[in-house]
């Protein structure tokens, strides 16, 4: 993406501050510096040198507002604030204005950040759009580092090599320096892997071992990775949820099917997933910030086109969405291969699948790997597809159907060249690669293809968008 700022769409904003001791101005200067780093032109002004009439023509303004006395606004803010308090101002006066407010205060006083709170409310009441939740700086807070580490920085992540390169600058112990130099040398790559990636050692655990490290606060965002948002497949159809009488059990809702991450590392250290552990502790009524992102799966244009869904475990989530929407659209050419350990313990959405079967809109093929008789080999979804070779070829090779694969993948397991190219293996049974191998088997046994032609057939499905994977680790 080009960094050039075009004149017809200038990237500009105004930063207004009101201060008594200079702290609010310092915050404004720091924000302006960050804006310039991303090629945004920032104009900084004290509120007492800013004409209130200009605010009507602004597109984006950031306010940095101090608190004086027991909740009073700084004197520099008085002229602008008195203008905003006029009763004859129309409610849509600032409909074209986007704004953000950062307040500075002290929780020792009852009216903490009061001017900032009043300012954001008044601007919103006059039609302005607040683009970010109001920030509130507390003089009593110990620098806010604990809040950063809990909310924005990921100290539970397995560190990359670049973390150790940064850490090397901040250790003072001679032995620790030598250890880091060894990790960072070309010869130490395997040792670093054995120390860090293999046992899934976290940043926090590394810092507990390199105790001489003293990371200056200005380097915090350079050393620690940002906590990344977690992505989950939506387990319900938005279209069917809004309009279908069959799906009125969850109108205007988004459903998720999430496996709680809990395990022990090679070092026998208990681990919990950062996001899933957070979700577990939410209570009904709690608010959760989310965003929507377009997924990989798309439905065939023709509802008569058959589809095969392969979704063991929580991989059933996007399959539920697909089947729900296909049923809403009147399609009956739907097949689901679902896999789990036991029919009675973790067969997600079992009653729904059976209801679709009874209605004639779904062929349901479950595999229960732990329900097999003692001594019998475990059966997985790819085994069922191999058993159904004739039907698989009929749907994919003859009727030009589509197949969707979704499930958990362990990236640390060996990669397998099933089709003479690299394919990610999935859980213990290498599901996605196994499914593709089962399709190849169907092409050879039922479609009279050679091994090379069967490989080409699977690649063709991928090129045409008729074989789509949505897997995660």
Tell me what the structure shows:
The chain has 473 residues and is an alpha/beta fold. It folds into four domains: 12-141, Flavodoxin domain (Rossmann fold, 3-Layer(aba) Sandwich); 151-223, Up-down Bundle (NADPH-cytochrome p450 Reductase, Chain A, domain 3); 238-280, no CATH class; 307-472, Rossmann fold (3-Layer(aba) Sandwich). It is 34% helix and 15% strand. The chain has helices at 23-37, 78-84, 114-125, 145-151, 161-167, 174-184, 189-197, 203-209, 220-223, 238-243, 274-280, 316-328, 350-359, 381-387, 389-398, 431-445, 451-463; strands at 12-18, 41-46, 60-65, 98-105, 129-130, 135-138, 262-264, 270-272, 307-310, 334-340, 363-368, 402-408, 467-472. Strands 1, 2, 3, 4, 5 and 6 form a six-stranded parallel beta sheet that branches. Helix 15 packs across helix 16 (431-445) and helix 16 crosses helix 17. The chain is globular, with a radius of gyration of 29 Å. The two termini are 29 Å apart.
């Amino acid at each position: 993406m080009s960094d050039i700022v075009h004149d017809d769409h200038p990237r500009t904003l105004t930063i207004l501050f009101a201060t008594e001791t200079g702290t609010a101005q310092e915050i404004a200067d720091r924000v302006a510096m960050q804006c310039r780093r991303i090629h945004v032109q920032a104009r900084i002004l004290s509120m007492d040198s800013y004409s209130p009439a200009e605010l009507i023509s602004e597109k984006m303004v950031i306010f940095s507002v101090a608190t004086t006395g027991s909740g009073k606004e700084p004197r520099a803010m008085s002229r602008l604030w008195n203008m905003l308090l006029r009763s004859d101002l129309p409610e849509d006066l600032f409909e074209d204005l986007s704004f953000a407010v950062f307040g500075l205060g002290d929780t020792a006083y009852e009216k903490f950040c009061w001017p900032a709170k009043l300012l954001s409310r008044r601007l919103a009441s006059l039609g302005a759009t607040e683009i970010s939740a109001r920030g509130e700086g507390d003089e009593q807070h110990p620098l806010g580092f604990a809040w950063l580490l809990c909310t924005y920085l990921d100290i539970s992540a397995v560190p990359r090599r670049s973390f150790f390169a940064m850490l090397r600058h901040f250790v003072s112990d001679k032995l620790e320096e030598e250890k880091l130099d060894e990790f960072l040398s070309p010869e130490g790559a395997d040792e670093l892997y054995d120390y860090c990636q293999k046992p899934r050692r976290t940043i926090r655990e590394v810092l507990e071992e390199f105790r001489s490290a003293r990371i200056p606060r200005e380097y915090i965002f350079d050393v620690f990775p940002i906590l990344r948002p977690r992505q989950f497949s939506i387990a319900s159809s938005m279209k069917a949820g809004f309009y279908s009488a069959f799906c009125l059990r969850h109108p205007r809702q988004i459903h998720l099917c999430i496996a709680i991450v809990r395990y022990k590392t090679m070092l026998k250290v208990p681990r919990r997933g950062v996001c899933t552990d957070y979700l577990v502790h939410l209570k009904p009524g709690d608010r959760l910030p989310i965003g929507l992102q377009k997924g990989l799966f798309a439905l065939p244009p023709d509802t008569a086109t058959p589809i095969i869904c392969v979704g063991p475990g929580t991989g059933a989530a996007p399959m539920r969405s697909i089947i729900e929407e296909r049923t809403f659209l009147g399609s009956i050419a739907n097949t689901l291969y679902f896999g789990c350990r036991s029919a009675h313990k973790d067969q997600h959405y079992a009653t729904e699948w059976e209801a679709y079967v009874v209605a004639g809109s779904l062929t349901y093929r479950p595999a229960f790997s732990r329900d097999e008789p003692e001594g019998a080999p475990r059966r997985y979804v790819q085994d069922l597809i191999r058993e159904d070779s004739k039907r698989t070829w009929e749907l994919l090779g003859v009727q030009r159907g589509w197949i969707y694969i979704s499930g958990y993948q362990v990236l640390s397991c060996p990669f397998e060249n099933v089709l003479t190219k690299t394919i990610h293996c999935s859980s213990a049974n290498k599901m996605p690669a196994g499914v593709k191998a089962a399709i190849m088997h169907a092409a050879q046994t039922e479609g009279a293809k050679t091994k090379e032609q069967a490989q080409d057939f699977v690649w063709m499905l991928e090129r045409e968008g008729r074989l789509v994977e949505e897997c995660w680790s």
